[in-house]
Amino acid sequence: MVQIERERDPEVLRQVALLLDRENRSLHERLEKLVREIASLKGEDAATLQLQIDELRELLAQREQTIFGASSEKRPRKEPAPEQEPPPRKGHGPTPQPHLPVVEQLHTLQEDQRACPICEGSLEPMGDQAEESEEISVVQRSFVLVKHRRQKYRCRCNAAVVTAPAPPKLVPGGRYSTDFAVEVAVSKYADHLPLERQVEIMLRQGLETSSQSTWDQINVLARELRPAYEALHPRILESPVVHADETRWQLMTRKGSSRWWVWSVASRDAVFYRISSTRSAKAARPLLSGYRGVVMCDGYAAYKTLARAGPGFDLAHCWAHARRKFIEAESGYAEACKPLLEWIGKLFAIEREAPFSQMPECPETLELRRRLRDEHSRPLVREILTEARRIEKTVLSRSSLGKAVAYLLAHWQGLTRFLEDPRVPLDNNLAERQLRRVVLGRKNHYGSRSRRGTEVAALFYSLIDTAKLLGVEPRHYLLQATRAALHTPGTVLLPHDLITN
Fold it and tell me: Helix, strand, or coil here: 231?
């Protein structure tokens, strides 16, 4: 008997899949027959019966998609016509490396190789002429033990002895430098390396330390950078449009593991995270308290609760989320979903003609986007609304297509807000892209071991992701911000301050 969970032969697995598919279809036909008989006995009309059968077919299609289908949301691209030959691909050549230091190595002939192959005379160098080529190599990171010698000075009167000042340290009298603490923080929160893994790497490079020592360093570093972290939030709330999203986070203590949540609010030049024990509106309120503008988000109820609580912000909803609902329903309702997905795709294509690339945007770009949306997006939106209302009357509300249409219509006001304000984007992808880094970190080090750990994680993710968003090297920024805070306690240095115009 074949044990499927242990079988590795592709041909055997293919045969098993075919048999299961055949059996599944047979059971589905039997179930469809029974549904017809039950409906006949109940006296239900043909339309209701057909809707129930369609729902069964949808469930079958969803199971097949789950087992055999791809998980990507990307739509299949149209293949070029057979008579059209694809254009030849051009090579891009080596990637320029303007930021790498250049180390020149001169290769010479050995003495016994400097004989002319023709006359056996002596070969002499041709001045500075040489053949050049480039090679990218690596210099291994190394740790050093720096001994600070503070010179003492005295006057001839022997009344005073002065010692040169020591460089500022995170921990007075501590053994680790600011550079070391920043290296650990960047490795964990930008490169997603858990502290235990960093300790193993450091040991191979000659440094003996512990995960507790590395945690102590980033913990103290976070205290020095807290004013900068807290300054990010009000800066983001000055933007006319902000993005909000959330994802789960794990808090692992000695009492057990519990699910916490990472809340994010972002503008186009900054992102701010806060990790909370709840996903309720109570946790979201501090992030958006006092904000006046437009919040781009998904359909989560917490944002709606805050928006209804009083005058403040308006909600704009994400077309990518609405599109995702129809992609999930496509396996069972391909024909019905096809026009809606095509129209939504055209909305995104229109947005690419006036992308959000400048900070702040110039009036010409805003006017171009407004005109494109008025001329091209509005007619598409009307088509989508008309088709959605038509479909709503023809499908069961509990089906995947019924749920997709219900989501679309329930959030219609927020989905169409982009037509009234050219500053509002079509989707919430900016916030989702930023949260991907948090999710990567969560997958690598699983979460935090204490409430203080959640605070440190939120701080470093906020500062590092903001630096990346602005094109500022995170290690350089954290060093500059920490040195400024040590030199003058309370100093706030944001990544924006390091941008060179």
Answer: helix
Q: Tell me if residue 276 falls in helix, strand or coil.
A: strand
Calpha distance 495→473 (Å, rounded) = 9
Q: How confident is the model at residue 321 (pLDDT cuts 50, 70, 90)?
A: very high
DSSP string across 157-219: TSS-EEEPPPPP-SSTT-SS-HHHHHHHHHHHHTS---HHHHHHHHHHTT----HHHHHHHHH
On the 0-12 / 13-18 / 19+ scale of CB atoms within 10 A, 261 is middle
Percent of residues, the chain, with pLDDT higher than 90: 57
Outline where 425-450 has alpha helix (H): 429-445
Residues 475, 181 contacting (CB under 8 angstroms): no
Tell me how crowded residue 445 is: count the other CB atoms within 10 A of its CB: 21
pLDDT at 3 (0 to 100): 61
β-pair partners for 295: 242, 315
Q: What is the amino acid identity at position 422?
A: P
Q: What is the mean pLDDT of residues 293-303?
A: 94
Query: Dihedrals φ, ψ of 244, to 5°?
Result: -130, 140
pLDDT tens for 325-338 read: 999 999 888 899 99
> CA dist 416 to 24, 380, 381, 391, 420, Å?
42, 11, 8, 19, 8
- Give residue-wise pLDDT tens across range 343-390: 999 999 999 998 888 777 889 999 999 999 999 999 999 999 999 999
Per DSSP, the chain holds a count of helices (H) and strands (E) of: 16, 7
The radius of gyration of the chain's CA atoms, rounded to the nearest angstrom, is: 31
Contact 359, 466 (CB under 8 A): no
Identify the CA nearest to 477 among candidates 295, 283, 256, 225.
Answer: 225
pLDDT digits (tens, 9 = 90+) for 222-278: 999 999 999 999 999 999 999 999 999 999 988 888 999 999 999 999 999 999 999
- In this prediction, residue 83 has a pLDDT band, given cuts at 50, 70 and 90, of low
Parallel/antiparallel/unpaired status of strands 161-163 and 241-253: unpaired
Do the beta carbons of residue 374 and residue 354 sit within 8 Å? Answer: no
Tokens 């057909």 belong to residue? 50
DSSP state of 394: T
Q: Where do the structural domains in the chain lie, given as residue ranges?
A: 224-294+448-498, 319-427
251: enclosing H helix or E strand:
strand 241-253
Question: Tokens at residue 447, please?
Answer: 């979460």
The identity of residue 16, as a single letter, is V
Angle at 431 (CA atoms; ends 309, 413), nearest 5 degrees: 45
Taking the C-alpha atoms of residue 487 and residue 38, their distance in angstroms, rounded to an integer, is: 81
| Cα 412 to Cα 460: distance, rounded to the nearest angstrom | 37
